[in-house]
Each structure stands twice: as structure tokens, then as C-alpha cells.
Amino acid sequence: MTRMDESLGPSGAAGGSRAWRATLLTLGIFAAVAPAFLLESFQLFQLTMAVIMALAVLGLNIVTGYNGQISLGHGAFFAVGAYVTAILMSHFDWSFWATLPVAALVCAAVGYGVGFPALRLGGLYLALTTFSLAVAVPQILKHKALEDWTGGVQGLFLVKPDPPFGLAVTPDQWMYLSVVAVAALCFWGTWNLVHSRIGRALMAIRDNPTAAQAMGMDISALKTKTFAASAMVTGIAGALSAVAIEFVAPDSFTFGVSITLFVGMVVGGVASILGSLFGGLFVLFVPNIAEAISKAAPGVIYGVILILFLFLLPGGFAGLLRQIAARLTRRRP
Amino acid sequence: MTTSRRTLILTTGALLAAPRLAAAQETPGVTATEIRIGSTNALSGPASTYSVITKCLTAMFQRLNDQGGVGGRKIAFIAYDDAYQPPRTLEQTRRLVEQDKVAFLFNQLGTPTNSAIHRYVNQRKVPHLFLATGADKWANPKEYPWTIGWQPSYRTEAQIYAKYILEQKPNAKIGLLYQNDDFGKDYLHGLKDVLGARFDAMVKTATNEATDPTIDSQIVSLQAAGCDTLVCGIIPRFAAQAIRKVHDLGWKPMMFMTNVSVSAGAVMQPAGPEKGVGLITSDYRKDQSDPAWANDPGMAEWRAFMAKYIADGDLSDNNYTYGYGAGSTMIQVLRQCGNDFSRENVMKQATNIAPMDIATLLPGVQVQTQPGNYNVIRQMQLQRWDGKSWVRFGKVIEGGNV
Amino acid sequence: MNGLAHQIVAGIATGGIYAAVALAIVMIYQATHHVNFAQGEMATLSTFIAWSMINAGMPYWVAFFATVVVSFAIGVAIERLLMRPVQNAPELTHVGVFIGLLLIIGNATGWIFGYTTKSFPSPFHSDKPLAGGLISAHELGSTAVTLAVLLLVWAFFRFTRLGLAMRAAAYNPRSARLVGIRVGWMLALGWGLAAAIGAVAGMMVAPIVFLDPTMMLGILLYAFAGALLGGIDNPMGAVIGGFVVGVLENLAGAYVVGTELKLTVALAIIIGVLVVRPSGLFGRVVYSRV
User: Fold this and answer.
1) Do A295 and B43 touch (CB under 8 A)?
2) pLDDT band for position B227 (50/70/90)?
């Protein structure tokens, strides 16, 4: 179920809802920027990583949540984005901002190329292909032919960009603010996409492909483009992560990353923009909680949480919030 | 007046406290009663066989505390799990340094994992001591003065094999099977170091991935290429396969195996002990199953430690002798520090260890460091499998400094 | 030329492993129209169970059959407990449950049994090397076992009423119910059989690759390639596909792209099959019209 027209708030009057939205927006900006100055450097680093993972989950949500195509290999696009940025910054001295559009385009192209053969057929084939891609990616990254660029097993080192114009913020703070800005842009773009005609077409394909096809939509073309767009968003997240960690190596991008993104999407809330935010937070902080519960087998806890959510809360955290909000608004006189 | 007296007392108190506050900042992680030491290891996931090292070190610090600690202080050893993933290693290391405010880092596991953090720790001037990895890049005092390894590097090991091969079979045709990562590649570099220009003519290489089911195909290729010598830089699972396949093919090369993959229990038994006869490896540690050390005082000390502090530990797991060696080195450094546990002094003592014997190291193999040479252990001895155990032969050989 | 023969024979031997796992995958697919991503981990768990039994002193074949039975029961239990509640849920939920299973079983196996490599005995021995050392007794024996299992599966589906009922339940559950077939239990049966086949595959594989919790992930990828190549709805096709993938992977690794890209070869096979002939060499081509 999708949230339809969110502009019709309970108050109804257009002027009141506009003021309400302006307030929310200001609060949102404040909430996003404040941590840069309130948190200690390590916690700020953690929050930066959470926002990056939220963006990566958003990418997966575009294709799996809103379009119903199951991808088990989005970690591969995360890796491609990270490496494009790393190579451009490390070998060619590009500035970090300049690498972002290139990383985005490359990931979109790779997504298109991978999706094209598989998306003509059923969802099963995409799942298999993306699964294989995710398992094969570390090996490709280490290959001799690419070694001069990728640094092979040793990986590549990067340096966080310095704050410009001599602003009085630390590199960590500047990194956080940059990440939030890029992520906000992507989230806003996705929100627009989802609430547009194209967005409705995507969801139509997900919910009833036969009917969608009967209506004349070119399903394959649309699915492939969606896959490309989702690869692009996750790729941008990968590029951001490369600079935040200042290091890329094939071992950072194993099959586990794709699984982590998948779990984050389900737990945060499938087909939900807010859910992607929750998913990012979950992905970053749950491993530590799982470690506290069971030092030796946090993976088991991960799997159990995933299955519990699938059974009890298929809408994820976002779905839970929606249920609570619906119950509250219903009670209002 | 009361207010000014109060102010006077408060100000004096603040002034008296200030030096101590300033001192705390100069020696992070160190208080009058405690020294905090941080570490990361793969406590979960596929690499978690090495988590017993952390268990061993925790027990060693426990023993030290029971004996009164060092410099009048007890050790608080904090180890976090990174599941062998570099981004997690960075997160946990930053947590240790910025949140837990440890004095220094010790024996963190892995090559890609340590690669992710060694620039960070060098920028912040945090001692990054005695890493649990044999990669060669840690012995670099010029560029990374705060990072130092411990065990002899894999590259050193390969150099030692190459030297031996040239001695015994100057015209050998060498096959090299190595895992396609930092660990395996050190063997490639080590052979190149010694063979130099002759490398291309003498050596045929094959690689494998950790995810490959078998390496039979690679072994067959190397035999078909006419090799009469085989050097393997592969993990225990593939080592057992390799030993068995070479035997089953009826091939009898002079065969060398990385000392990471020569455990009697985990490799030789599964492969079939009679199939590995003649296999050569090297070691710097005493093999606990070797009857020569049954009455050795050093191993007795180790066994007593295991019995008292890790009663459920598997005595045939040589990660415990490894941990004992690294832990002993660390404790020696702490003792050398006297009462000054500032980061500068810890680093200074860590890079000035006079040659010392350790209970679990072979006689003739010593731990030593100098400010210009960060190779902590430089010697190894070759040993040959005789069907029942490893038999040392020859002298202790020193590896080149690369 | 000797090297080539070696590589091909070695490829057939590893192909046998892929074929066995591919068979288990196709089994579940035929019964439920789902691909079980946790198949590899389930097989690994079964093999560890067998290992524990053998270590406790049980003779090999007793442990073998006991493991097959236990795995069958586990498969049925998983279907009844985990898949049944979400049977009408969207595809995403099903895949999610498979992934959850993969995480739980994979990590639990590692946690309970540890990650050190263990050896697993083989029931096939020979004192002299066979065929000039080209193939070991075990490799020959396990290939024979895979083919025997394939024959049993084929006969089961073709000649027994139960097999027919299972096929009907998967193909058209509604009609099947109308003629009195207990569709739910057919699905459970499918899972049980697949788990049992997986257990056999695991016990055949372990003596070659040595037993450790991560032994199956790479194999699973090649098995998927084999199953796709042969046709995901055709057991015989899957087995042939598995052998072909084994040989191709070895030859490509030895002569074409080098051993560093063998996983990529599997990926290339998958993409190639999907582009050229998605239903695989032996699968039925399905046309859908809107």
C-alpha cells in the first residue's frame, strides 16, 4: 500500500498545511545539520556511515520496493561507485565532488547492462544474476588486468576533502554535512519520482504486471531503466563511503554487503523513503547490538531479526509508524 | 569575605588539579591504576578460527594482573569484533581510540583490515603494535613509524625457500600456487626478490580464490607445465587438498608449504599423513606435538599457563603458542616502560627490544627490534614431515630485510 | 594433450559436485517454483550432522542414511513452519525468508562446529590410483552416486503416483486441490526431498573439498549456473548442466582467462544463458501472452 496524497493533512486547509510543511522542513534541516556540531567525532562518523547506508538502501528500495524486482547484488554497485571515486581521486587527483556524477553514470550504465538480459524474464532470473554478480565482484576487483587501476588486493587510499573557504569545521564535520547534502538531494529526487506518473507506473508493474502490460506499458524498458536508476543511487552511496572510510579494498565488498542492504530494506520498510532511513540506522547499529547478545554468532541474530520482521512486521519500521499514525489520526475527533 | 575565600579555595583547587588533567591528556588511556589496551579480531564469521588469539591474550593479561600488573597498574584489555571486514575495523578502531580512549592498539588481525586503519593511527600517533598478520608492509619505519608487525613475514618465508631451492637445485623449474590476495602475493614477491631476473624463466604461477571449491585444476596445470618444485601459499583447507592431489597424481616435486597451513591436526591428518612425507615448511615456533619439547621448560611454562587460565583450550591449536609469543613480547615492552606509559615511550620501547628468547619460540629464533628495523622476528628453521611429525633440519636461517 | 585430458576429467569430477547441488535446487524449484538460496547452507549443516555421527562412532553407511532421513525431516519442518505462514505473501517475502535461513543456518553451523577444516571420510577406496592418477576412487564413486540419485528422482516423478501428485501441485495448485491432492503436504515433501538430495551432495562433496562451514557458497554459484544452463525445471538438464559447467570452468581457467577469473566464468555463463536461451538447453520454453 502506498501513501497517496500526503498534502491533505488532517487540518485540510491549504494555508495551514503549507505552514505545517515549512515548519517540518525547517525542523528537518535543523535535525540533519545539528549533529555535526553536537556529536563527538566518532559518533559523528557513525552517523555519517548510517546516512550513507540509508542512501544505499534507498537505491535498493527503488528497484525492489517500488518496482518489485528482487536484487540480491546491490553490493556490487556499491563497490563500483566506491572504486570509481577511489580511482579518479587517487590516480587522477580529481576532487571528490567531481567524481560523484561520474560514479553515478558508471553505475547506471553497469546497472543497465546487468539488468537488460535478466529483466526481460521473471524476477527469479534477476535474483540469480544479481546473486552471482555479488559473489563474483571481489574476484573481478582483484584481477590482474585491472590491478593498476584498482590497486588489487592492497586497495587504494583516499583522503577526506578539507573544508573549503577555510570554514571552521573539522574534516569529519565537513564530510558529514556533504553526505547529508548529497543524500538529501537523492532522497528528494526519489520522493519526486515515486510520486510522479513514472512512480505509479513502477508500482503498477510491481502489483500487477499483466494488467500493466495490457495497458500498453513497455515493461522491460521501464524495469531496466529503474534498475539503472537504483544502481546509480546505491553507487553514489558507495562513492561517499569510499571517502568517509578513506580506503577501498576488494575485501570490503563481499557478498555480505548485498545481504546487509537487503536486510536493511526489509527491516526499515519496503517501498518507503522513511524506511530507507531506518534501514540505514539499523544496518549500522544492529551489528553492535547483535555482538552484545552473542559474541560468536551475530549473523544468526541478524537472520532471526529478518525472519521476525518478515512474519510480524512485513512493512518494517516505517510500516509500524504508518500503522501508529493511522490509529492516531483515526482517533482524532 | 566568604565569597572571595570560596573563590580562592576553588581557584587553588583548580590549579592543583590542572597538572593532573594535563597529564591525563598526555597519557591517554593511562590512569594511576589502569592501562587500557585495544584490539580487534575476527571474533565471528569465517575467519573466526583466529579468535582464540584474543582469548589467549585476554588470559595473559589476566595472569599479569593477578601477578600485580605492571608499573603499579592493571591492564584493561578491550577487544572488538570486526568480522574481518575493513570498514568495521575502522569503525571499531575509531571507537577504541576516540570513545574508549585506549592508550594504544595491540595485535589486530588481518592485512586488509589493518590496511584500513594504519594511516589513521599514524596520523593520530597511536602505537599500532605487533599486528597479527605476516604481510610484509608493516616493517616500514620511515612512512609508518607507529605501526609494527610481529611474526616473520610471508615474504621473508618465501625468500628463505627460494634460497634453499637455489642451494639444492639451481636449475629447478618452480611451480607457485598462491591465493589471490595479500597473503598469497607475498610469496610471489618473496620468490621474485631472490630470483630476480631469472623469475620468469624459472617459475610458473597459478592462483586460487578462497571461494574455489578445489584447487585440483591448478595442481594439474603446474604438473603439466613440467615443474619439479612446488611452492604453495594457500590456506589450510586447500593445503590438505594440494598434498593429497600431488600424491594421487604420482607427482614427486620438492614441495614447500606456507607455515600458516601445516598444522598436524588441521592439514596433515585430513590429507593423509603418509601422503605428505617429504613436505617442507618453516617455523619460528615450537610445535607442541613434537616429542623433542616434551620436557622443555618453555613449553612447560606454556602448558601450565593453558591449564590454569584456558582450561578448555585446544592444546593442538598453534594459535595459542602464537598468542603466547605475541603476548610475552607485549608484556616485555610494558615492563621496559617503567612508569612512563605515554604513547611516545611505549613506541620507543617497542622499537628498542634487545634480542630476547620467548618460551614458545624455537631456540635460536629471537624477538628483537631497532628503530631502523621493524622486522620483529627474522629467523626461521626449515622442517620436513616424516609421516608422523615435523622434523627440523639445518640451521636457523635469517631472512633478508626487504 | 595429457594436460587437457587431465583438466577435462578434473572438470567432470568437480562437475559432479555441481550437478548434485543443481539437482537439489531444481527439485525445490519443481516442487515450489522458488529458488532456495539457502540450499548450500542446509547441505553443509547436514554434512556436519553426519560428521558428528561418524565421530561418535557410527559406521559410515548408518550415519549416511540417518543423515538423509534427518535432513528430510528438517526440510519438511522448514516448509511447514517457515514457508507455510507466508505462502501467499509476495515473492519478496519468500526470498527474504530464504536469505534469513541462509544467515541463520550458515552462521549457526559455524558457531556450533567451528571454522577449522575437518576431514570427512569417503566410502570409496582403492589401493591403486585409477586411470593413471586422473581420477580418484572417490570422485568416480560420487559421480556414480549423483547419477543414481538422478535416476531415482526421474523414476519417482515419472512412474509414481506421488511424483505425479507433486508435479500437479506445483504446476496448478488450485486444480490439484480440486482432485483431492493435499497441496500443502506436497510442498513439504518437495522440500524434504530437496534437503535429502542436498545432504547426499554435501556428503559426496566434503571428502574432496574438506568440511568447513563456508564450503558451499562458491559451489552454490556454479550449481546455479549449471541449473540455469540445463534448464531450471528439468532435473536431467540440471545434472548435465552441472557437468558442463565443471568442465568449462576448468578449461577456461587453465587455458583462456586464467584461474583468477573462474567465478566470473560462472557469472558469464549465467548471463550468456539468459541472453541466448533463457529456458536452458533442456528446459521447456514458456511463452506468455498478455
Assistant:
1) yes
2) very high
Residue of A237, A231, A300, A178 lying closest to A50 (CA atoms): A237
Task: Name every chain A residue with its beta carbon within 8 A of the beta carbon of B98.
Answer: 40-42
- Close Cβ partners of A48 (under 8 Å, ≥ 6 residues apart): A172, A175, A176, A179, A244
Q: Is B177 found in the same domain as B128?
A: no
Residues B182, B148 share a domain: no
Mean pLDDT for B286-301 is 86
For residue B158, which of B139, B141, B142, B177 has the smallest C-alpha distance?
Answer: B177
User: Do B298 and B331 belong to one domain?
Assistant: yes
User: Which pLDDT tens digit goes with each residue over C75-121?
Assistant: 999 989 988 888 888 888 888 999 999 999 988 998 888 877 788 88
Q: Is residue C228 part of a domain?
A: no
Chain segment C174-204, per-residue pLDDT in tens: 888 898 888 888 888 888 988 998 899 899 8
In a domain, A162, yes or no: yes
Do B333 and B259 belong to one domain?
no
**Is A13 a member of any domain?**
no
Under the phi-then-psi rule, with left for phi > 0, alpha for psi from -120 to 50, and beta for the rest, what region is B130?
Answer: left
Are A300 and C100 an interchain contact pair (Cβ–Cβ within 8 Å)? no
Half-sphere exposure of A18 (CA within 13 A, CB side): 3
Report the CATH number that the domain containing residue B215 is assigned in CATH.
Answer: 3.40.50.2300
Residue found under cell 587460565? B309
Q: A275 to chain C: which residues are within 8 Å by CB?
A: none
The domain in which residue C88 lies consists of 2-124+132-216
- What is the number of domains present in chain B? 2
**Whole-number CA gyration radius for chain A:** 20
Q: Do B207 and C258 touch (CB under 8 A)?
A: yes
pTM score: 0.85
Domain final residue, candidates B283, B298, B328: B283
Number of domains comprising chain C: 1
To the nearest whole Å, the CA of A101 is away from the closest chain B CA by 24
pLDDT in tens, B6-24: 555 555 555 444 444 434 4
- Residues B261 and B308 both lie in one domain: no
Domain count, chain A: 1
Handedness of CA C68, C70, C76, C82 (dihedral sign): negative
Q: Residue B378 domain-assigned? A: no
Of the residues B283, B309, B341, which one is the last residue of a structural domain? B283
Considering only CB atoms, which chain A residues are within 8 Å of B180? 139, 142, 153
Q: Which residues contact B130 (CB under 8 A, 6 or more apart)?
A: B106, B107, B148, B149, B150, B326, B329, B330, B350, B376
Q: Is pLDDT at C272 greater than 80 in this prediction?
A: yes
Interface probe with C: pick from B208, B215, B216, B314, most Cβ of C within 10 Å: B216
SS3 content of chain B, % helix, strand, coil (to 5): 50, 20, 35
Q: Which chains touch A (3 or more CB pairs under 8 A)?
A: B, C
Q: Which domain holds residue A207?
A: 41-254
Which residues partner with A90 through β-bridges?
A: none
| Cβ pairs B/C, distance under 8 A | 97
C208 belongs to a structural domain: yes
Q: Which domain, by its residues, includes B356? A: 25-152+284-371
Distances from the Cα of B64 to the Cαs of B70, B132, B308, B332, in angstroms? 8, 21, 13, 11
